[in-house]
């Protein structure tokens, strides 16, 4: 295609290029990719396609070797990354042709297996050899509404629990440093032990994420305190526009204080006061979840997951990798120490 050029962007220009892509998220940005690289075995190629010098698409792809196979992911299982994949500028006239060019050029160059999520949910990648595996739905709060409108939109049970948490003496604060990390990781263990699993993220990843996103101003962490005791915590990456619910946790023996509804509510207000316009609850299982629905959000399809493999053996190996990854999160699995479980 005349005038088109695929290249790998350097880290210094990457975020400014993403600013031209309306559907890009904090998960596409340099700080998040750097956190993944710090604790994982993949290196990200920040691939862009330009036409006559005008940006068409930005696509971060993590590349790694699995034996003789070259695997690409945007993202892969275990990366704790809800959104990724190619994002286009308004100037892009033919997204499918652009994706085809990017796959065939260095540094991607047709890996044995390539998984990607697509924020452009109406884009059909099947003509490029991809198979659509599932769509993800999310619940989203419009933070441009007034505080009164937001509170009124919540179900009565949710409003009652917000008030109850406050009456129980809970106070929500924005965390200013990394002192929350140990408490939060212990909370996460309390949450996941109910299903006999380890948390899907390690302490190492939480520290790497905090270090990079706090420095870039792309992280809000809030905690509910009862006196001097931290009771529950939310971790919210953001790009200045959309607050993304990454993870939350609470101490099991403090649930009688009803912290979680109040914590989400106060976090929404904090994000609203910072100028963010959306609060995305995010789905990791394909469905948004009943607890989140009580906040009166809008439901929408947020992204579609696509996979492309060069032969059936590669697909079989991917399925075995996912099965092994799930097994490693089981509490009775001997492969990993409890606090350092990898994610699914």
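^ structure tokens above, recovered residues below v
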């Amino acid at each position: 295609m005349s005038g088109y050029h695929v290249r790998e962007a350097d880290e210094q220009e990457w975020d400014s290029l993403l600013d031209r892509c309306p559907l890009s998220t904090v998960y596409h940005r340099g700080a998040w990719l750097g956190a993944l690289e710090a604790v994982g075995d993949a290196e990200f190629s920040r691939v862009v396609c330009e036409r006559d010098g005008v940006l068409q698409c930005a696509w971060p792809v993590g590349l790694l070797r699995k034996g003789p196979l070259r695997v690409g992911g945007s993202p892969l299982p275990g990366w704790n990354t809800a959104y990724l994949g190619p994002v286009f500028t308004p100037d892009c006239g033919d997204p499918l042709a652009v994706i085809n060019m990017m796959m065939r050029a260095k540094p991607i160059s047709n890996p044995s297996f390539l998984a990607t999520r697509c924020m452009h949910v109406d884009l059909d990648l099947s003509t490029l050899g991809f198979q659509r595996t599932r769509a993800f739905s999310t619940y989203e709060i419009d933070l441009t509404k007034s505080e009164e409108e937001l509170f009124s939109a919540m179900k009565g049970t949710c409003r009652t629990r917000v008030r109850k948490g406050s009456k129980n003496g809970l106070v929500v604060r924005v965390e200013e440093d990394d002192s929350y990390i140990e408490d939060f990781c212990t909370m996460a263990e309390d949450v996941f032990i109910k299903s006999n699993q380890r948390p899907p993220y390690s302490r190492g990843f939480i520290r790497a994420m905090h270090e990079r996103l706090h420095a870039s101003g792309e992280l809000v962490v809030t905690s509910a305190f009862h006196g001097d005791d931290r009771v529950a915590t939310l971790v919210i990456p953001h790009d200045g526009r959309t607050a993304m619910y990454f993870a939350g946790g609470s101490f099991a023996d403090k649930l009688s204080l009803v912290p979680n509804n109040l914590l989400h509510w106060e976090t929404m207000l904090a994000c609203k006061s910072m100028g963010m316009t959306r609060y995305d609850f995010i789905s990791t299982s394909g469905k948004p979840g009943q607890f989140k629905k009580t906040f009166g959000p809008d439901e929408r399809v947020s992204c579609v997951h696509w996979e492309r493999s060069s032969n059936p053996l590669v697909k079989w190996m991917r399925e075995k990798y996912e099965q092994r990854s799930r097994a490693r999160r089981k509490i009775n699995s001997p492969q990993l120490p409890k606090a350092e479980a990898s994610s699914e």
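The two ends are 39 Å apart (CA to CA).
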